[in-house]
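Objective 1b: paired records.
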Amino acid sequence: MASYTHPQQSQSRSSNASAESFSFDIASAITSANIPAYSKITKVTITVWGDIDTATSRGKMTASFGSQSICSDVWCGGSAGEVSRSADLNISTFFNSENANAGKLKDSSVRLNITLDGPVMVTNFNHTAKYQIYFEWTPHSHSTEVRNKVSATCTTTGYTGDTYCTVCGTKISSGTTIAALGHSYNSVVTPPTETSQGYTTHTCSRCGHSYKDSYVDPIKINKIYIGTSQPKDIYIGTTKVKAIYIGTTKVYG
């Protein structure tokens, strides 16, 4: 919790009239309090003083702030001397709270009015009105979210995002750059055939990018011929030969 008490302010007037009215603009007090935006206003107390400079006769003090009464017909002056009264102002009626204008008046035209109603006298006498105002508030507590986040890809950098308050919109912190992830390849070998090359295919498991390398020429197979024809079946004795290899190369079967 934070608080601020504005120094006492006063007005004084010498008059033959039985009643004098004083009007105070509290804008300077609000400015001096320097209440941060989005704070929660928890208490505003205003204290008024009244005095009428007479030797013996007393007067009465009445004070109000906008539509709210602070005091009414309080004896002051004379034998009563200077008197004071305090009241807690209705925050929801008069003040902004938990928004960008926290602490400021909802209606800037509202004023503190003090009337000092004294006895009728022939000679001048002083009417003196004073006030002091006290503020209490709870500073705004940020509720955060991340904005401007960018995911890194295999080939581009990302960004962790900036942290903002969801209530007041303040940027609390900046993010950092995320390095590109790089490709993560899975490799599949395609063997050569008699008519086509063999190769290895590399495919990224994250983005699907692929490329081929490690090419192998088609297989050259030497075949057995009898005359100009390839025999369908070869037997050794009565046993049919299933396959014939020369080295590791299959030439029959």
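Objective 1b, second protein:
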Amino acid sequence: MTFTYDATSISTDLAKVRMLIRDTDASKPLFTDEEITAILVMDTDLYMAASLACRAVATDKSKTAMVVQMPGTNITAQEVYKAFSAQADHWERLAKEGAVPATANVYEDTQTWLDAITGRHDIEFELPTGSD
């Protein structure tokens, strides 16, 4: 049973599903690579696969009767179920609309990012000290 994810190289469908459902922490994986591969066999649409994964997590988490209590906060298993179910609904809606996942751009520094979002490559922006 393996877990692979590299935020700098999200080129495989497996990595894209992990990114969509935020299963990116190898120390606390929601799924093994084999499980996500099985989900992708069930449905090759990335958003539907993410939806299936979220529904699986929601169902799994709803089986555990737990309450997390912190000052001012109580999180029940039912709330975890609702959160993952809502996320599953979101991915399912995007799949039905025929949405296509976009890839993220990684910028090497703040100036490059500002140039990309403003389209103004000819202007040198004043950046606060230590922002790079």
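Helices lie at 13-21, 33-42, 46-62, 77-96, 110-118. The chain has a mean pLDDT of 78.
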